[in-house]
Write a structure and sequence with these properties.
Radius of gyration: 24 Å
Distance between the termini: 41 Å
Strand content: under 5%
Largest sheet: none
Number of strands: 0
Shape: globular
Length: about 350
């Protein structure tokens, strides 16, 4: 019993030390993690290109696979920065006056002798100022990350290029370091991680397009401005499970609150909530449920942890990292109980069956 307690204490201390190290190493660790995950996703495409091209032209396979994916990432990040800059521009022109939320002078006088209007005016001014300040802070942080995005993309490009060109060398190292059974386990784990990550990205992209289109249509019905911005943000934020959809729905509601009136904001919120519930509780689980075997509670904890650790990049990486970690742990016999804790399954046998589904 004492020995087991020692193991758990040492494990906890190791996790704390690792988290501190990862936070300190964020400028290097983030590109490396991005590069590893992207390499796993594009490895099958790269392998097909290598097979069909002659040896003298195989560098086209490396370059082509990387450029396609990095183009997608660049567009993704550029859209995020564009949306943040538009929100920042809009918020900077907002005067913080929420007169449309206040009762008329006659209504206020009839209620409490005119004192209500002053009270509501004070509260609404403070609320509007806080909302604008919070939205502006987030938008400014995202818009100011353009330089970091470009630097990260360049670094990720070279990391992926080197990883793809050395795939054969690393395969030989694994063969030399592990017996045949260990090689099979790691090969199976990598294949499963690749499949799950690819399915996750494809389905999440489709769901993001659907939810963004529905959000934009609903906002258009109420004359809410910046439809392109809200559509882009909704699409991007759907890659962050749970919290992403909440943020994507909250931002246009707050915008409607400070630019229109309370009734419009309430109607917008009601419609977006219905869309989010239908997409999040019916369509998304139907499409993605069998590929993401993670506990929703653990996903939320992971989002909070990686978001605290690496900021916005950590929030986007949280689910892919957690999914990859679960699969890897499940292929290490002593750590299978940890994989079960991270999953949404009841037993290790159920987890094995869920991961083996194609």
């Amino acid at each position: 019993m004492f020995r087991r307690a020692q193991v758990w204490i040492l494990g906890g201390l190791f996790v704390i030390a690792l988290a501190a190290a990862l936070r300190a190493m964020a400028p290097v660790a983030i590109p490396v993690v991005f590069a590893v995950l992207i390499t796993l996703v594009i490895a099958p495409l790269h392998q097909r290109l290598v097979r069909v091209l002659p040896p003298a032209l195989r560098w086209f396979a490396h370059l082509g696979a990387i450029l396609v994916l990095l183009t997608v990432i660049a567009v993704f990040l550029a859209a995020l920065v564009f949306a943040a800059e538009r929100v920042l521009q809009e918020m900077s022109s907002f005067d913080g006056n929420m007169e449309t939320l206040l009762p008329s002078e006659s209504e206020a006088t009839a209620l409490v002798g005119g004192q209500l209007k002053d009270l509501v005016g004070t509260i609404s001014s403070a609320l509007s100022g806080w909302l604008v300040e919070q939205i502006t802070t987030v938008a400014r942080a995202i818009a100011g990350m353009t330089g970091m995005f470009i630097t990260t993309l360049v670094l990720v490009f070279f990391l992926i290029l080197l990883a793809l060109t050395e795939r054969g060398i690393w395969r030989g190292k694994i063969a030399a370091l592990w017996p045949e059974q260990g090689q099979t386990e790691w090969r199976d784990a990598l294949v499963t991680i690749t499949l799950r990550l690819r399915k996750f990205l494809i389905i999440r992209t489709a769901v993001g397009f659907l939810q963004a289109a529905l959000y934009v249509l609903w906002l258009w019905l109420f004359g809410v401005d910046m439809l392109v911005v809200w559509g882009v943000l909704t699409f991007i934020l759907t890659y962050i499970p749970n919290l992403g959809s909440v943020i994507a729905g909250t931002l246009p509601v707050l915008y409607a609150l400070v630019t229109k009136d309370l009734a419009t904001a309430f109607a917008v919120a009601a419609g977006l909530l219905v869309i989010e519930q239908v997409v999040g509780n019916f369509i998304d689980p139907k499409l993605l449920g069998k590929y993401i075997v993670l506990s929703p509670f653990i996903i939320l904890v992971s989002l909070l942890f990686w978001g605290w650790l690496w900021g916005i990049a950590g929030a986007f990486l949280a689910t892919p990292i957690l999914l990859s970690l679960l699969i890897a742990l499940n292929h290490i016999p002593p750590l299978r109980p940890v994989a079960l804790i991270l999953s949404d399954q009841r037993t290790s046998e159920d987890l094995d069956r869920a991961l083996n589904q194609k």
